[in-house]
What does this fold into?
Amino acid sequence: MRVAIQGELGSNSHMAALAMLGENSAELQIVSCASSAEVFEQVVAGSVDGAVLPIENSLHGSVAEHYDLLLDQPVRIARESLLRVRHNLIARPGVKLADVRRALSHPVALSQCRHWFAAHPQIEAVNFYDTAGSVKHVMEAGLNDAAGIAPELAARQYGGEILLAGIEDHAENYTRFHFLMRESEWQAAEGANKASLAFSVAHQPGTLVLALQAFARAGVNLTKIESRPVPGMPWEYVFFVDLRFYASNQIDVALEGLASHCEMVKELGRYVAA
It folds into this structure.
């Protein structure tokens, strides 16, 4: 099974893929992609069987680009998982904390370790394109005065050594991931109790209220709502929602209700809630 992720091997997306699809599976091949757009391209083209991508972090918020790509591309959400995010300071074997003068990582990871950097003013925070990629760079470049901030898996992947574990500001740091498949091969998961939808309404008073009332009448629980601008249409928006339901006909009733009030409705997936 070939599964695409955005970023380097050893990243949180890699960890989420292993947790979701089987860490001990010898048949699971992770395909690293440089960008999220490339991940979607691989899925749509059939070069991979699916993809694991983050959609929301409990501290940083939603990944806006992935919502846009979900709406634009013929893919569906097949599964959902939650990953506890831990940021670890990883260096070359033999390097001590006192030797480290720079810590490289993705800007989001660096921002989630502000308290640690404040307590270690001698260490400079350096933006890097990827968490696991920072460890890969430190190892390949043979840097003895730098370390990467990344998941534990990155240390195993590239032969690094964890100098300090769990340097994040907040222990309650989770990322929600989706497993995506081509629309033509997708089927609703057995026992599905959650769905993701996208819809737009006319720019008129009360249209959003009418759409939301459709969810209430169907008896589904609206757990998240997110708005994104429509490219090329200033001040027009698409709404993304997550719903919890207890019977499959509930989501069907909600979709029928939306159809009568919305200009566009797209079901993004039905799956088992993490």
Q: What stands out?
A: The two ends are 22 Å apart (CA to CA). The chain is about 30% helix and 35% strand. The mean pLDDT is 94.
